[in-house]
Design a protein that fits this description.
It is a single chain. The protein is α+β, with helices and mostly antiparallel strands. The chain has one domain. Helix content is 14%, strand content 27%. It is built from six helices and 15 strands. The strands form two sheets. Strands 2, 3, 4, 5, 6, 7, 8, 12, 13, 14 and 15 form an eleven-stranded mixed sheet that branches. A hairpin with a 2-residue loop joins strand 3 and strand 4.
């Protein structure tokens, strides 16, 4: 019997590429996100901080230009730790399943999702239904994928604590009413962390289980600004790591001034 495909998921890549990223080996001379023309940058004060600042940038004339002023967001109740993304392995804490930390590093921005049938966004969008789950069971072959129980079977989603229609399953919870996938651990490495999203916060300033949360107006701005054909990336870093990596990772300057944005070398 053919195994049903995930409804939408963190898209698979070749296993060799997964090993390269997981072990921090990268092709010399270019950044894995050098095609990115949009960036969502979140900075936090230190590894254990649960609140941060978010800004949207777009590449114009080979320079990062701010599309928004900095706004407040919250991250995991355990702070942050290095996740599995486009970046090389770095010294410091490492994210694990259930640790309450948001993944630090550089990640592709994946599919947008929500409760409505359509939203205003340039990202690929998928409305969620009561049968959609993100699998956070590390031993599952569907680990870190969003699947439809009607396709994969009820037994395949058993034990998952991440229904995508939280309003239906969790007493009207509206946090997933609008959001998008942050492609952390897209290859599903066991126990490396799963189901990392940008989504609405439950209350201003309240931390998450590992996602990045924000006000509804901020999310609306993000979704309207981001376009899949611009290969957007999501970056989260403690301030000290941002300062250390800004030049080698060709990151934009934070703040409202466009005069400080560095020219990218592509």
């Amino acid at each position: 019997m053919k195994t049903p495909s995930p409804r939408f998921a963190i898209p698979p890549r070749r296993f060799a590429a997964a090993l390269l990223l997981a072990t921090g080996i990268a092709h010399a001379g270019s950044l894995p996100w050098s095609d990115a023309q949009q960036m969502v940058l979140v900075t936090i004060a230190h590894w254990n901080a649960t609140q941060g600042s978010l800004q949207i940038f777009q590449l114009e004339d080979r320079q990062w230009q701010a599309l928004s002023d900095p706004v407040d967001v919250t991250i995991g109740h355990g702070g942050a730790a290095w996740g599995v993304g486009l970046h090389q392995t770095q010294p410091g804490p490492v994210k694990r399943e259930g640790d309450g930390r948001s993944p630090a590093g550089v990640y592709r921005i994946g599919t947008a999702f929500g409760y409505a049938n359509t939203v205003h966004t340039g990202l690929h969008y998928q409305p969620m239904h009561a049968t959609d789950y993100c699998i956070d069971v590390s031993t599952s072959p569907l680990y870190n994928q969003i699947v439809d129980a009607r396709q994969v079977g009820e037994s395949a989603v058993a034990g998952s604590t991440e229904p995508m229609r939280r309003d239906i399953h969790l007493q009207g919870d509206s946090r997933y009413r609008a959001g998008f996938v942050i492609e952390h651990n897209r290859h599903g490495l066991a126990n490396a962390g799963s189901c990392i999203f940008a989504h609405l916060w439950k209350a201003p300033g309240e931390p998450t289980a590992g996602c990045t949360a924000m006000a509804e107006a901020v999310m609306e701005k993000l979704l309207a600004s981001l376009h899949a054909d611009r290969h957007p990336v999501f970056v989260l870093l403690p301030q000290a790591e941002y300062l250390r990596l800004r030049e080698p990772w060709q990151l934009p300057a934070i703040g409202a001034s466009a005069d400080l944005h560095p020219t990218l070398e592509h």
